[in-house]
Specification:
With 255 residues, the chain is an alpha/beta fold. It has 10 helices and 8 strands.
């Protein structure tokens, strides 16, 4: 498996189509000299094809912000894994905390999405887990993370050639401008790894999984995360919308 560090830009619903196109052009130009790690951008669905045209032949990879658990059918408003792959996506975010909050996505749905995405060649799931502020205050984080991972992955088999990314995103930190303390992130990532080891075995986790952090990463705090033992990359929201800031974050993470 490719174990290079990875930086993923989640543009959410922050940009219109023209704004997305302009940012994609800037990123392709700005990142053309970077030859380490992986860089992924996740634009809105309407702009996917245009962004693919811009990035085509470059080093930046394309991802979707969410996905449905069926490949075909009467599911108005949804988008399937094979359509994402046809559009040029190599990654897709599954179970982002904002979807769990605003559209009531739960881990039964997340499990079905992961299973379906794993059935598509060359489409890598980015599965999000993380506790909210109340769960953090009541010291339930460890139990929450283990439960979320069990619900997302329980009963699934990971084949030798399949890749999976788990994004730890403490919900209380997302969009707050305040990232988690690096030592706390390191501990949470260790819990994630141990839980995955219990589900799949250490060898599979070492070979097929990457664990990344998401939650108010910016140019001021990214250096604090670079040397964490269990950090394979970052998922960046607002910090990815400014090309210079995103480039600085990427340089810190992937060199």
């Amino acid at each position: 498996m490719n174990k290079d560090h990875i930086i993923i830009a989640n543009w959410k619903m922050k940009l219109g189509i023209n704004e997305t196109i302009e940012l994609a052009k800037k990123i392709k130009d700005k990142f053309k000299k970077i030859d380490k790690g992986e860089v992924v951008v996740c634009p809105n669905f309407v702009a996917l094809m245009e962004v693919k045209k811009i990035l085509n032949g470059g080093k930046i990879k394309l991802g979707g912000q969410t996905v449905f658990w069926e490949n075909r059918g009467a599911y108005t408003g949804e988008i399937s894994p094979d359509i994402l792959a046809e559009a040029g996506c190599e990654y897709v975010i599954i179970g982002h905390s904002e979807r769990r909050k605003y559209v009531l996505e739960n881990y039964e749905m997340i499990h079905k999405k992961v299973k379906t995405v794993l059935g598509i060649d060359n489409l890598i799931p980015i599965v999000c887990v993380g506790e909210d502020a109340k769960e953090r205050k009541t010291d339930r984080r460890d139990f929450v993370l283990v439960d979320q991972l069990q619900e997302a992955f329980g009963g699934l088999n990971i084949l030798k050639n399949q890749q999976v990314i788990v994004a730890y995103e403490p919900i209380w930190a997302i969009g707050s401008g305040v990232a988690i303390e690096p030592s706390e992130a390191e501990y949470a990532h260790k819990i994630v790894r141990l839980a995955l080891n219990d589900i799949f075995g250490m060898q599979t986790v070492d070979n097929n999984f990457r664990i990344i952090y998401g939650g108010s990463i910016d140019t001021k705090n990214v250096e604090n995360f670079v040397d964490l033992e269990n950090l394979d990359g970052v998922l960046v929201g607002g910090g990815s919308l400014d090309i210079d800031n995103f480039y600085k974050i990427a340089q810190a993470i992937i060199g």
